[in-house]
């Protein structure tokens, strides 16, 4: 049956009122999108186009074929939220109590009455005991409850995850899926935001957790098949969640590449809906205020910075004023990009070890990562300084290196010249600063736009040491044939992303970092980033 005939047949056999027929127009690529085009009120062409792209992406990855249920709450109307995209005649949601709909973004319960019911039973179609997964995408830090959006009447499909009101890392994620006992998974970030999935890999009840397309590990629990209908936002015991939910899905298990493809597609759809990172207003106590997948993580400590194959997961810890949560550090874990982090510091924001004029927030690797002497390093990153940022009159350092023996900021240090607002890279050898005090070479650095950096250097004595740096495709430092290190033989650590100012304690300052890459293999793999930087998210 051709697409139009298939859709016509679908409409003809649907119970009256279950599938409105108004608004059908030129067919999209996918039959499922054409069915969505019949909803009343009729979704916009741009929303339908984004839905069509999402469905196509999931079909290409082999994900769509595994799904029983797919609900999009980043929808234009409350009616559109209730449809199961996989099969419009099955699994439609019934709304109960008080629910808040944010158009093209999310749905949230009032925490006491609002939830959805279905007549779709678990383990009844593609998802079966021993071969099942469920997941959801949430957009807020939920500190009031640990109830997952996906639940069942039988009570054996759930995920317990609750954020700490200070931003401290969440110690454990508890979950069940066709099990009588709950699995426990560690959580690196103190955040409930993002795309969370629990998967049952086999009938021994090996469960696997994923966040934003990356595995958190496996745990085998006592097998016990669940039964009953799917329900959302309310547990079998009658507890509710207040999470802002953008998506919920349920189906058979996925491969690791499919999990990543699913997360990428969901993030891409939300970006198309403008549910994405946006530049904020420096100085607020909240950080950016738009609805977006912001992970607020002010007291993070651990690993979780995918950078490059030769240096895949350096350990780091937050350094700043802990009570600056939630604005101090925000991570956006969109797997379509790499390492999107926003740092903001206000006057007085500093760790306890700093003098009173310092303003600092950074991810520090001291005593956790040592870059050996006589190592050739290569790094690349992009950064964006928000409009409204106020620089200190003394110095403003961004990503920088420290000598682990003498404990000094010895470079390469990427910095802003307070006098001009220009970008520069400086270094320090034997008590002497180079390219700072005074600045010799720098480049204009506008606020409100992305800038791209590539720096390569070798920790070594003369004539083998060097440091070269490019900014927006133009070389801004070319120091060769030198000793590059504060002291011979000293290993280095890295302030992975930094915002470090001094003298007057100025602020507020807000900087985004993206696509952080670091390599110590000696092959200098990021030369192409000079003219072809990685894509960055739109922050307008």
From TrEMBL:
InterPro entries: ConA-like_dom_sf (IPR013320), Polysacc_lyase (IPR025975)
Top-level taxon of origin: Bacteria
Pfam families hit by this protein: Polysacc_lyase (PF14099)
Protein name: Uncharacterized protein
Source organism per UniProt: Bradyrhizobium iriomotense
């Amino acid at each position: 049956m051709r697409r139009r005939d298939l859709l016509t047949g679908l409409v003809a056999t649907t119970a009256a009122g279950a599938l409105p027929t108004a608004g059908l127009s030129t067919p999209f690529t996918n039959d499922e999108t054409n069915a969505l085009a019949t909803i009343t009120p009729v979704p916009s062409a741009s929303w339908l186009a984004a839905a069509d792209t999402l469905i196509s992406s999931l079909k290409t990855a082999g994900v769509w074929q595994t799904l029983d249920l797919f609900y999009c709450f980043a929808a234009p109307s409350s009616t559109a939220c209730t449809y199961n995209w996989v099969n419009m005649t099955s699994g439609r949601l019934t709304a109960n109590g008080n629910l808040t709909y944010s158009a093209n973004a999310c749905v949230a319960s009032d925490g006491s009455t609002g939830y959805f019911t279905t007549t779709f039973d678990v383990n009844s179609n593609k998802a079966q005991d021993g071969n099942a997964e469920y997941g959801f995408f949430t957009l807020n830090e939920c500190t009031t409850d640990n109830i997952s959006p996906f639940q069942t009447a039988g009570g054996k499909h759930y995920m317990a995850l609750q954020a700490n009101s200070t931003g401290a890392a969440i110690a454990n994620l508890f979950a069940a899926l066709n099990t009588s006992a709950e699995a426990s998974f560690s959580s690196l970030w103190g955040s409930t935001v993002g795309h969370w999935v629990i998967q049952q890999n086999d009938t021994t009840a090996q469960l696997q957790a994923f966040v934003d397309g990356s595995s958190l590990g496996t745990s085998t629990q006592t097998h016990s098949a669940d039964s009953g209908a799917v329900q959302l936002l309310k547990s079998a015991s009658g507890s509710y969640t207040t999470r802002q939910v953008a998506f919920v899905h349920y189906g058979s298990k996925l491969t690791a590449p499919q999990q990543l493809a699913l997360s990428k597609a969901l993030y891409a759809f939300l970006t198309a809906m403008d549910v994405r990172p946006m530049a904020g207003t420096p100085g607020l106590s909240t950080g950016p205020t738009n609805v977006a997948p912001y992970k607020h993580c002010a007291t993070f400590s651990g690993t979780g910075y995918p950078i490059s194959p030769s240096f895949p997961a350096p350990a780091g810890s937050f350094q700043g004023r802990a009570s600056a949560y939630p604005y101090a550090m925000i991570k956006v874990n969109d797997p379509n990009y790499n390492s999107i982090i926003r740092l903001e510091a206000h006057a007085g924001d500093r760790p306890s070890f700093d003098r009173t004029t310092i303003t600092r927030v950074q991810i520090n690797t001291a005593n956790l990562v040592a870059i050996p002497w006589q190592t050739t390093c290569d790094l690349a990153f992009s950064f964006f300084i928000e409009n409204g940022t106020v620089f200190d009159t003394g110095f403003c350092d961004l990503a920088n290196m420290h000598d682990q023996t003498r404990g000094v900021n010895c470079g390469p240090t990427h910095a802003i010249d307070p006098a001009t607002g220009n970008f520069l890279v400086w270094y320090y050898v034997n008590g002497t600063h180079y390219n700072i005090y005074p600045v010799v070479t720098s480049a204009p650095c506008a606020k409100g736009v992305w800038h791209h950096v590539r720096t390569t250097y070798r920790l070594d004595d003369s004539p083998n040491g060097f440091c070269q740096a490019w900014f927006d495709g133009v070389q801004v430092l070319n120091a060769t044939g030198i000793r590059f290190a504060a002291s011979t033989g000293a290993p280095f650590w890295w302030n992975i992303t930094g915002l470090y100012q001094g003298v007057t304690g100025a602020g507020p300052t807000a900087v985004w970092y993206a696509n952080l890459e670091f390599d110590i293999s000696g092959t200098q793999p990021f030369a192409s980033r000079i003219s072809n930087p990685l894509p960055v998210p739109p922050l307008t």
